[in-house]
Design a protein that fits this description.
Length: about 625
Amino acid sequence: MRPRIRLAVLLLALIMLCTACATDYERRGDTSSTLYIGEVASAFPTSYMPWFSRDGVAPTISSMVYSTLLSYDESTDEYEPLLVKEWAYLDRQGNPILTEDGKIDYDKLESEYSGKDTSCIPIRFVLDENATWSDGERVTVEDIYFTFDLAANQKLSNHAGALAWVNDLLHKYDNNTGKLRRKGIYTYDTGANEKGYPISEEERDTVFYFEVNKVLGAITPLVSTVLVLPEHIYADIISFDNPINNTSPSEDLSYAYQHPVGCGPWTLDREKTNGQEIVLHRRDDYHIKDENGGPLYKVDTLKFILYQEINVAIYALKKGHIDVLDSSIAANYARLFEKEDSVYVASAPGLFTQCLVLNLNVPSDQSTRAREQLKNPVLRKAIALAIDQEALIDFVLDGNGRRAPAGLVLEGDLFSAEADILLGDAAEKLQEANRLLDTLYPQKDENGYRLDEGKRLSYQILANPGMQDTVSYLQVLFQKIGVEVSFAASGNSPETTYLYGGNFDMTLQGVSLTPANIDIMYNAHFSNLNRSSNYGRLTNKEINQGIAAMRTTLNRDHKYQMIRDLEKTIAEEYYKLPLYCQDVTSVARTDRFTGWTVSDGEGVFNMDSLSQLQQVTQEGR
């Protein structure tokens, strides 16, 4: 048994001993269709405005109470109906650009709009006329216009993320004045017919049009990221002085935050929700049903229970106090359930590559000797060569993971084998790393660490406490090339405190690049220098031009090849160095519900599971 596994077992045993006299828990005698979900967090949110927070359970609750226009399935490249029941790109005559079997005709889209005589692509949407808000009001195009118009207006939204979501929607505001510069959303009442986008009187509540940049990936963040807000709730209580994303909201705005009116499949039970529990009820009037016309989701009530320590949450699941953990668990914890008959342990391939990010373009006010050293690509290459991914996976993940390519795009349609330049025998790569560093820093101290004008090559790795195992093993690996690293706690708001301002040497960052997000995330990770995921402020003219060209080509095959070419250029910067891709390990009980399911990148608590769960009868327990 490895030391950290033994420690986990001892901690769990101690918790069990300390809580052995606890009174019986609610779930044990509950025969209702209520799912008890363990949530590990420091606290539960007090606000449920869907754009307000990306932390903890808040995004999960928001995505269940509210809804986007569509969902996107990367495995099938299909958009599934949510609020919108049909949509299509339009040609210049207003006809849908679809193949005979109803799919997007990418060849026709390219031939229609690749020329310089057009500035945008129009898209026609039709709302599901049965979609309603949880207060009974119907969802209409006024809600759509309000939501996307708000997202595009920084003065009213006060939300930088919303601007990124709608970046390719050609509905633009002046960020200084909050005045509309260009309209790109059209409804019956906002000039659709005058613009040449026909909407009949009968369609006025359901049909709307977007004008988007000529970018193949423009549609995805628009339809699958932006949670639609109720115009009748928010329109009269926001202003430039009281924007919707507000840390000091007015009384009316605060009430709306705490009493969400959503259009998703679940509604918040405000009376039963508190600092320890969040309770959601399934909406019987949700407009999407299963294939038999019954409820799409099979559980009546979801009860999220707060645990501030993962070991306590694991104990609660072992003892039957909860049905499932919302978050994934460390792989070594899975061994704690090996002898449990009523526990399902699932493992799914992860989609995020854990990277070591080097600060290679430090602002002048944050410059140090160590940070200036990292500007040297030879040093960065040596550090990259010293990373033994297989050893990291074995030590840190107990083998529950896979190596990640240097181009950071996992195997699939976009993957380039030519960009995977860090493949090879670990011993040979280590030898090459030392050879490179011998040319730069040949002098060493008595402990074997390399010296630069008498001072060690020494760097701090900014990370959260949960990543200390990773940093510890990087210390072992880098010591072999004479480079010293140490752990530095990132705190609660590392982006604001350290990363956006360039106040760090190295940091850890999860990166996921997929067909659904690459138009936004390539720019965010490798080009944008303003409060983006490009923490180390990479500046490369060739990469910037390549990303811009990739985004604007309408030839799908050409676009994918351009992405593969970019992967190699990005890999050769030795900027975001891949460490591993961790499997998602999750756990649920099977004594009250069965039918748990997983897919790549997900744990067992997901919407597919909620649509397939079956309650175990009292006789079946």
